[in-house]
Amino acid sequence: MRIRIVDAFTDRPFAGNPAGVLLLDAFPEDDWLQNVALEVNHAETAFAHRLPGSAEADWALRWFTPATEVAMCGHATLATAHILHTTGTHTGPVRFATRSGVLIATPADDGSITLDFPTAPLTAVEVPDGVAEALGAEPLTAFDTGPSVGDLVVELADEKTVRGLTPDHKALAAYSTRGLIATARAEDPARGYDFVSRCFFPNVGIDEDPVTGSAHTALAPYWSERLGRPDLTGLQASPRSGLVRTGLRGERTLLTGRAVTVIDGELHA
């Protein structure tokens, strides 16, 4: 069985967010899917199979971390669309049937791919007691993203603070379903990005996610309102780093990025 490792939201190997991608004839038992994701041991492994022509989507798609299945994942969706298009398995926009509804990935002539995802609702909340200590920085504001994403978003004082975080991941697990998104305005937009973020998801087995598409469905409406523009670029400032172009379109958010296949091999299991 063929398995690929794809670095998503980057145009070079060993950056962005790596994802395993397996194209199947059908979904096997969940235990097998989970074991493969644990073996791959990246933030997400995507499993997809083609749907009949009468279906509302072209491919069924599921995502697993090493610890659990998740309801939404941007970078592994981008990675799957990249494999479908670069191998000639699918041409043009591809519709994925997922736990978050039908998600569309559209390739561009420049090699980038745009994902059409639901915009996460943001509800202002009081900064929970203990978050500053667990994160290692004092949040200015806090927002709940609701069940679709399951994160707490906090804005910090500046880009330097976001980059310098060394949180207590175990302590952060108490404050949301999935984890915490820390963000700040870019220090110098001339560098090619408008805001920075880092994402910590201890509740799904990921201390720090390198580049998180789903988080940008919450970051896009937040920063678009703050900066007064619907189209922005976010830098996820993890050690691997990656860029996500965002386009706020009301209840939908467009996420655009590139991907690179770094491993193409066989799974013997």
Overall description:
The chain is 19% helix and 39% strand. It is an alpha+beta fold. It has 2 domains: 2-118 and 255-266, Diaminopimelate Epimerase, Chain A, domain 1 (Roll), CATH 3.10.310; 123-250, Roll (Diaminopimelate Epimerase, Chain A, domain 1). Strand 16 (242-249) and strand 17 form a beta hairpin. The longest helix is centred in the N-terminal third of the chain and has 13 residues, at 74-86. The N and C termini lie close together (8 Å). The mean pLDDT is 97.
Features:
269 residues, alpha+beta, Diaminopimelate Epimerase, Chain A, domain 1, 2 domains, 18-stranded mixed sheet, 39% strand, globular
What does the main sheet amount to? 18 strands, mixed
Q: Provide a count of the helices.
A: 6
User: Which fold does the CATH topology of the largest domain refer to?
Assistant: Diaminopimelate Epimerase, Chain A, domain 1
Helix content: 10-25%
Radius of gyration: 18 Å
How many beta strands in the DSSP annotation? 18
| Main CATH class of the largest domain | Alpha Beta
CATH architecture of the largest domain, by name, is Roll
The percent range for strand residues is 35-45%
Task: Give the distance, in angstroms, between the N- and C-terminal Cα atoms.
Answer: 8 Å
> What's the number of domains?
2
The SS-based structural class is alpha+beta
Quote the average pLDDT.
97
CATH superfamily of the largest domain: Diaminopimelate Epimerase, Chain A, domain 1
- Could you list the spans in which at least 5 consecutive residues all have pLDDT below 50? none
Quaternary organisation of the protein chains: single chain
Order of helices and strands: EEHEEEHEEEEHEEHHEEEHEEEE
Categorize the overall geometry: globular
